[in-house]
Specification:
The complex is a heterodimer. Helix content of chain A is 71%, strand content 0%. By secondary structure, chain A is an all-alpha fold. The two termini of chain A are 19 Å apart. In chain B, α1 crosses α11 and α4 packs across α6. The longest helix of chain B has 44 residues.
């Protein structure tokens, strides 16, 4: 479909004004306020102490733990999702079929209830240990460990990896695959030279949609980590809801935003056209 | 020659059968992983024993308790009201904005789309905190209204990004032809442009509605004391200790979502209704 030339007209442009005002009031000014709070102390004087506080051992630990866990979860999600999407593509189901539907259905369940369900399963006296105990197989100890958090992250964010990858895979023309086979490419060559390169936009968008929420979560660590293993999200949340040191919380949020921006810049390097989309 | 070919075909047939088994196995494992927690919650919602690893017989007690709980009822009402109101507001604001943005020159359009991307790409925790700071700075007291404003804010981008592609596909000459044939701009818009972009508006609305239903993090920071949505109520309950009626609630929500999605996905509809 060819993009039609739009002749600029003042009347129609005005329709965007309410939205522009709204976004200035509720997106730009709020973001600016994070900078204001993050770069001042309680008396309103300029300081870099809130940002530098990331170097405090407990904060640095929370940040590096969050980076590690979110990276591991993102990689696991990618490794699980890509074969899944390849298999589903091979079944020629299209994007609206029932089989595809059941793979993304859990995403529509409330996020907290899903995480809570894993707590129920993994707990010391939870369902899995109950079943293992009934079969005299001993018990597992996973709740309140970083591994449990990775479990929760992979479970919650897997559909966000599956959707964009599946959508881009389905757009790949079959004649390209036939051409690759005709030219003598075997399965792995076709995979690496045709599927993966054409799928980059989907992979990039999947990675962003998993990495950012995993890096910044405080809910999963709270429910599956027992509130003792803190991620940077927990630290920031705590500063706003419990300790009430908003300046410190805003300063740490600035640091977090820097990491989000770095990861997005790195990813947009791989996806120059920004075609990847989940919807 | 003939036997060699047939041996080769059989081998290939065996190989593809094996591959298909491996594939099915993989699909099953992922499905089990995805549905185990949901199945667990459904089973436990009917469990008479309060213990999570002992089956104490079938009961509907937790459902009765759930429906008698005024706190849950209020939270449910808030959640639905906020989802409907914020999705309607975001759809109106976003559709108008998409038409405006589509009429803009390149530079202002790029700036507008850049701003549109902020709430989508930023971490929810940062969006939530920034809105909370803004409400306090603007002296808007935290409560129902601040949750609503926040939800409209993170919902509008979804509407814009659903409507814009449809707008780009509509031909401007049809709109102009309608006017040449005597339609007023308003008539031309509602009779000619609107039918083309309606699928985008619908999917934007549905996306906004579900985003609002599922949100916890932004609501957590902008709600203030004394008002709960289902998400914030579940969060406080999870911290206080497990109430089996939460399993009943999960089961009902899952059933409702399943029925709604089945209806919306598999009722006969026009092919272009998908975003």
């Amino acid at each position: 479909m060819k993009t039609t030339m739009t002749i600029p007209s003042p009347g129609r442009k005005a329709l965007a004004f309410p939205y522009i005002l709204w976004m200035i009031g509720f997106t730009i000014i709020p973001l600016a306020l994070i900078f204001v709070f993050g770069l001042t102390d309680r008396n309103g004087a300029f300081t870099l102490a809130n940002v530098a506080a990331i170097a405090r051992p407990d904060h640095a630990k929370a940040l590096s733990r969050a980076l590690l866990l979110s990276l591991v979860s993102t990689v696991i999600c990618l490794l699980l999702a890509f074969p899944l999407c390849m298999i589903l593509r091979g079944r020629r189901l299209g994007t609206g079929s029932f089989v595809v539907f059941i793979f993304i259905l859990p995403m529509w369940m409330n996020f907290l209830l899903r995480t809570f369900a894993w707590q129920t399963l993994l707990e010391k006296k939870g369902v899995i240990n109950g079943i293992l105990g009934a079969m005299h197989l001993g018990s597992i100890r996973i709740i309140n460990t970083p591994e449990a958090m990775i479990f929760g992250m992979v479970y919650n964010f897997l559909p966000f990896m599956v959707l964009p990858i599946y959508n881009t895979l389905c757009k790949i023309d079959d004649s390209l695959i036939d051409a690759a086979h005709d030219l003598g490419a075997d399965f792995f060559q076709t995979l690496l030279r045709v599927f993966v390169p054409l799928c980059v936009p989907g992979i990039v968008s999947g990675i962003t949609m998993v990495f950012v929420p995993a890096l910044t979560t405080f809910v999963i660590s709270d429910i599956l980590g027992g509130g003792k293993i803190l991620l940077i999200g927990n630290v920031i949340e705590g500063e706003f809801t419990r300790s009430s040191n908003w300046n410190l919380g805003a300063g740490l949020s600035l640091v977090l935003m820097v990491f989000i921006l770095i990861s997005m810049a790195a990813l947009s390097f791989f996806d120059k056209n920004g075609e990847g989309t989940a919807f | 020659m003939n036997t060699a070919t047939s041996v080769k075909t059989t081998r290939r047939g065996l190989l593809s059968a094996l591959l298909r088994t491996v594939e099915n196995f993989y699909l099953t494992i992922i499905l089990v992983f995805l549905y185990i927690p949901i199945a667990t919650m459904i089973v436990l919602s009917f469990n008479a024993s309060k213990s999570r690893s002992v089956w104490g017989g079938f009961t509907l007690h937790w459902y009765a308790e759930l429906f008698a709980d005024a706190e849950i009822a209020a939270a449910f009402r808030n959640t639905l009201l906020i989802a409907v109101l914020s999705a309607v507001a975001a759809t109106i604001l976003g559709t108008a904005a998409a038409i405006g943005i589509n009429a803009m020159k390149k530079l202002p359009r790029t700036i507008c789309l850049g701003v549109t991307n902020i709430p989508m790409l930023n971490a929810d925790i940062v969006t939530g905190i920034s809105l909370m700071l803004a409400f306090i700075a603007f002296r808007i007291s935290l409560g129902f209204q601040t949750i609503l404003i926040s939800h409209i804010t993170f919902n509008v981008p979804y509407v814009i990004l659903s409507v814009l592609p449809k707008l780009r596909q509509t031909s401007r000459s049809a709109y102009e032809a309608a006017q040449d044939l005597g339609a007023t701009p308003r008539q031309a818009f509602f009779r000619v442009v609107m039918p083309d972009i309606r699928p985008g508006i619908t999917s934007g609305f549905l996306l906004a509605f579900t985003m609002s239903l599922d949100d916890f993090i932004i609501t957590h920071f902008t709600r203030g004391a004394g008002i709960d949505t289902l998400s914030t109520l579940i969060y406080s309950q999870v911290r206080r200790g497990v109430v089996p009626s939460m399993y009943a609630l999960s089961t009902i929500i899952f059933g409702a979502v399943l029925v709604l999605l089945l209806l919306s996905n598999f009722l006969p509809r026009k092919k272009n209704a998908a975003a």
